[in-house]
């Protein structure tokens, strides 16, 4: 009687153990890849619960489906998106990636792609031969798509994969990259600014961004009589913030460029009222802190930019 009871119990137990293992594999695959329950289940079924093979199959299918999806969605307006800014030592990059809706711009897959694109631009410029002063490289959509990542796939491939995941059109719009010698420093800023400290090797994401190359004559500078001492990088970053908010069109040359008659119409950086403290102009802040802006770039997500700003490689004194 006991033997009959056990014989009925063991097969059921085996089935339950198999089902548990199957659920565990499914949960692991979903967490690792981010793909849907149905797709992960199908991948495991096709490969006898082999996680490695199932993951590889999912990636191949996603790429194929992504390109198909990207082709179908191509041409649909992409006015939303994010700006990515990354500065690493003597190289900095600012990238604009667009999508159709703000909802997708908040999607984790889309944001990861913007970060990947930003880091890819930095690595791309590290391989570019430097000019004597500032090396400035603009990349348009097609140039961005051709950048190859460490996994052997292009940014265009990764874009298609992301499109297949989020389900709406997206585009690599433009990028500006700086590479500087030791005499020049770089800093960047995005708005809205992150609410918490972001590691230096992680790209910043926002709707607006700025990238600034600057020179400093000493290690500790003071922004004003009533402000605590700040480092050159801290002051330059505040100028980055000013550039995002006030949208200057050029740096300006003291003694050559005259202030605008109406301060609200001022487009020359050095003559604009300093956003952080309007009692000073940006030029006064730079002079007081012995800083020189070598070059700057500002991106606003969705804006129409001039082709000259996207396809330029120049050295600036």
Automatic annotation (TrEMBL):
Entries under InterPro entries matching the protein: EF-Ts_dimer_sf, Transl_elong_EFTs/EF1B, Transl_elong_EFTs/EF1B_dimer, Transl_elong_Ts_CS, UBA-like_sf
Highest classification ranks of the organism: Eukaryota, Metazoa, Ecdysozoa, Arthropoda, Hexapoda
Organism field: Anopheles arabiensis (Mosquito)
GO molecular function terms listed in the Swiss-Prot or TrEMBL record: translation elongation factor activity
Subcellular location: Mitochondrion
SUPFAM superfamilies: Elongation factor Ts (EF-Ts), dimerisation domain (SSF54713), UBA-like (SSF46934)
Gene Ontology cellular component terms for the protein in this record: mitochondrion
A family per Pfam: EF-Ts_N
UniProt family annotation: Belongs to the EF-Ts family.
Stored PANTHER family: ELONGATION FACTOR TS, ELONGATION FACTOR TS, MITOCHONDRIAL
The protein's name in its UniProt record: Elongation factor Ts, mitochondrial
Alphabetized UniProt keyword annotations: Elongation factor, Mitochondrion, Protein biosynthesis, Transit peptide
Keyword Transit peptide: yes
